[in-house]
Amino acid sequence: MQAVKTKPTPSPTQNSKRVTNEQIEFARSVNLAEYVSKQGYELEKAGKEIHVKGFGGAYVNPQTNEWNWFSSGVGGHDTISFVKNFENNTFVNAVKKICDEYGYMPSKSPTERQSSQQRTQPNFTPKAPTVFEKPEQAVNQNGNPDNRRVFAFMTQTRKIPQEIVAEFIKSGDLYQDKKGNAVFIHKDKNGVAVGAEIQGTATKDRNGNAIDRFKGVAKGTHTTAYKLKLTPTPKTFYVFESSIDLMSFYARVKYGKNPECFEKQQANLISMNGLKPNILEKYKEAYPNARFISCVDNDVAGKNFNVTNGFDKDQTAIYLEKTLAQAQVKDWNELAQKDFAVRNNLEFTCTYETPFDKEDFIAVADSDNFRSDEKDTDIEVGEDKNADSEDEVEELEEEYLSYA
Predict the structure, then answer these.
(1) Fold held by 21-116
(2) Structure pTM?
(3) What pLDDT, in 10s, does the model give residues 333-380?
(4) Which sequence spans correspond to the domains of the chain?
């Protein structure tokens, strides 16, 4: 197998406060080919390797547990690193997920620990995908749904307007599970729950120390996505890395100067819960005539995703990416948090990565693709058909991406 840039898995001594060395060894020993088959990834044999279809050149070696995701330029040597990258998880949460999936039990003797390290199974045998298990809704003392923790997290920590959070909860798309996590339900075309994205709400432990917030999917969630269904006949899809970014962007447009934007475009919004080309391709196959607009993160992985999937030449995707770069933020929720901090004279630390080129932004935002009178306009962002100054470009940005 051709080698590509590798993201090494942390040593067993790392993160030991949250997972034990034995858990790490157990998760590392799980056969990757068996795992991807069990999780319902679409697979096909490619010589001695397994091709994970829909991810732009992703291959697994069942003999060595080595994997490479060529379109993203990353690879690894065990199931932990695979779960981290493909399922947008932290190291700790990846270990915990694998242990839960494979029924990890603490060993009582060195012999048992040694046997747990010999679990690699070189033979690839496809298995039936796991069935979706919907996380149980939290309830209060009266037996009524309890969403208080999720509501507080979304409004106070994530700075998403209360009305937007209430709208999502009321629709049944968002709720709080028994562990206090935010659950975004994936529904099929008939409105039946078929999967779920899970976002942890805890940011600190009981001692006030910062912790990695859980991010993942419910058991049995496969190639589905969270979708904000604004119209039953969509002609446009906005594509995000997370449902929280989706909510932030939705609020930004709804409370901006062009709130009818989504209605005019007949737009729906979808979250891939990571960078998952297979989900994007699934929607493109289902809606071959629809327009897809990338709203992924302003980081190296997001830029690679845009290049690999053709968004690097899409003027709208470029415009949105430059909008995040201009604000020096990583994603749409970070932009919402920064806006709140600016309005209230508070300090805010961004995780911004990429330098911003003002001239490039002006050239993109001022291109013909953003004229409000063009039939194929991606986003209706202004009425001035001859905007060519920096001030006019900033007004154009406010028309579309600023709160009222």
Answers:
(1) DNA Primase; Chain A (3.90.580)
(2) 0.66
(3) 999 999 999 998 888 877 665 444 444 333 333 333 333 233 333 333
(4) 21-116, 134-222, 225-404
Q: How far apart are CA 156 and CA 154, in angstroms?
A: 6
Q: Would you say how long the chain is, in residues?
A: 404
